[in-house]
Specification:
Pfam families: QueT. Keywords: Membrane, Transmembrane, Transmembrane helix. The chain crosses the membrane at residues 12-33, 53-84, 91-114, 120-140. There is one protein chain. The protein is mainly α. It has six helices and no strands. The longest helix has 29 residues, at 118-146.
Amino acid sequence: MKTRTLASGAMIAALYAVLTVAVAPLSYGPVQFRVAEALTLLPLYLPEAVPGLFVGCFVANAFGGYGLIDMAAGSCATLLAAVLTRRASNLWLGALAPVLVNAIVVGGMLHLVAGAPLGLTALYVGAGEAGACFLVGIPLMRALIRQGILCGRHGAGIPSDR
């Protein structure tokens, strides 16, 4: 692995963790809005974002108060969502993967750990995730593309956002 790729993945991990912990009251619990989840669209453009998001989520969840189960379940949900996003054919489908995976996995984990109602918890987590991915993530990715910071898969164009 190239040093630059490793550094890029590490920076994504650090950014995810810092953005999550910095706004901790919004980031944890049955009703949550993680601004850092906007970064979950990066795997469409950067393969190193897949492990970067996993590590960043693991670190962030260490500060969340739900312990090892959240560190494991939340990080694995982020990893699965990142892999699915990486395989998505367009930006909109890429944004849908983290919403569905986190609603199910994190909603289920919070139901087990906090005793929150499963349906409502999944709905709340999914709604927060949808806000982060669709309202923040898609505009962020488009801005990074316009600025020439992201250039798409394998350096050849960008995934369609239609």
